[in-house]
Amino acid sequence: MTTPLLSQWQTPCHLVLQRNQIVLGNGLRYTRPAPMIYEQQWLWDSCFHAIVWRWLDPACAWDELHSVVAQQISDGPDIGMIPHMNYWDGRGAAMWGDEHRSLITQPPLIATAAWLVHEKSPNLAALQQLYPRLAAYHTWFTHRRELDNDGMVWLIHPWESGQDATPDWDMAMGFDENLIGSNAASSGKPLSTSNLLSNQAYYQNPHDNGLRQARIQLVNTLRHYQCDAAALRSAGSFCLAPIDFNAIRCADLEALSRIANTLGLTDAAAHWQQKANQLQTTIQQRLAEFTAAQFIDQPALWLALFGGCANQTQAEHIANSVAHAIKTTPYALSNVSISHPAFAPARYWRGNAWPPLIWLLWSGLRRYGYHALAQTLAERSADLIHQSGFREYFNPITGEGLGSEDHSWTTLILDMQCSNLSHHG
Ligand code: GLC
Questions:
Q1: How confident is the model at residue 205 (pLDDT cuts 50, 70, 90)?
Q2: Nearest 5 degrees, angle CA 64-CA 157-CA 44?
């Protein structure tokens, strides 16, 4: 007997993903994040899409992963890097000097996604095909981005974090108060779809446009230094090793170890697991520098749960912080705490509810057994989508939808519901 998929989200999510799916001439398929505004393929988005597609059409889930690794760099110092953007229409040259790909990466969730898809719909041949590419990707991280022998990887551009404009990056970007502007509400909805690469206004808030220009400018510096993180750090360019990004990598190293084991590669499996353990230890030491009160105000730390990087005390601090957010923030999670001086609920990445972060936290809470908190997060997310549709992100106080419409990653609600049903089923 097959179990019926008891989710009211199945049809609406399927429609969004189908509408956003692009079939390429070379037999590959991918899902764009949103029509018009985000036409290219983004790395972490595609991992989220695969995680959702597994409930709807596993063949699409595997294709999403095969297409996202297809532009992996195959020579030079960055051999093995999986780009944060694939330009299947060949329009990457203006920004990156490369028609087909960007020169930076995004949070590594790809082994995690491959493992989740495989669990739902086992496919050894697909895992076998992906494994060498995923292994090369994590080897690239080690060679090019682990700068201090403690396992932590460093980012050279805010875009690599996936969280483009969080106030956490302001100082490293050299932003001053005049450039940042006030936190007054103004919609984060992009003004026009054609301005993505131009110098014209993109967001309604002029300061958000200024910050975006600085991010575009930074690409020139990266190109000048050939994306060498050590050299960029010495030169005082943006270079940070955020805890949340590294926790995501931890989970990916663990998933890579599981994949290697499944393929009978026991030495490799031990190697990846050992790297994950080293990183968990380092992150635990970093977390020890924060007090319980500091956890409350720093949602980025909460993602430590996703990578299994918190010890029991730290996990409790995080669970208490999430419980506090549930009480004080109507939609439960804002990427910048509502008590932070820079909190700006309608400005891009400066205090909003973001579906990918909600999913990562939801997963992390479940990993540590905080099922009730995870469930509340999922319910508040469902409320957001009922109220405002499949928007890119949301005002965490009013629930207003922001950014693009029909955004693919917002279908993660389906994964939250189906995983919950299978957990209890
Ligand atoms: C924005 C987000 C980034 C995402 C992309 C496509 O640039 O900041 O995280 O990958 O949109 O959705």
A1: confident
A2: 15
Q: Averaged over 228-248, what is the pLDDT? A: 98
Kindly give, in sequence order, each residue whose CB lies less than 8 Å from that of residue 59, ignoring residues fewer than 6 positions away.
none
pLDDT exceeds 50 at position 198: no
Ramachandran angles phi, psi of 22, nearest 5°: -115, 130
- 322 φ, ψ (degrees, to nearest 5): -65, -40
CA 71 to centroid of ligand 1, rounded, Å: 18
| Distance (Å) from CA 286 to ligand 1 centroid | 27
- In order of 27, 137, 156, 317, the CA distances from 231 in angstroms are 39, 21, 10, 37
Closest atom, ligand 1, to C-alpha of 164: 8
Q: Alpha-carbon dihedral of residues 208, 212, 217, 220, nearest 10 degrees? A: 160
Ligand 1 contacts CB of residue 354 (under 6 A): no
Atom 6 of ligand 1: nearest residue by CA position: 33
CA-CA distance, 115 to 29, in Å (whole number)? 19
Q: Is 23 helix (H, G, I), strand (E, B) or coil?
A: strand
**Which protein residue's CA is at the shortest distance from atom 12 of ligand 1?**
33
Atom of ligand 1 nearest to the CA of 163: 8
Q: Locate tokens 């959702």: which residue?
A: 52
Burial class (CB in 10 A: 0-12, 13-18, 19+), 369: exposed
Q: Is the pLDDT of residue 195 over 50?
A: no
Task: Judge if the beta carbon of residue 393 lies within 6 A of ligand 1.
Answer: no
Q: Is 406 in the pocket of ligand 1 (CB under 6 A)?
A: no
Domains of the chain: 3-424 (1.50.10.10)
pLDDT at 55 over 70: yes
Find how far residue 371's CA is from the centre of its chain: 22
**Cα 279 to averaged position of ligand 1 atoms, centre (Å):** 26
- As a residue count, the chain comes to 425
Are 23 and 29 contacting, i.e. CB atoms less than 8 angstroms apart? yes
Q: Which residues contact 39 (CB under 8 A, 6 or more apart)?
A: 32, 89
pTM of the predicted structure, to 2 decimals: 0.95
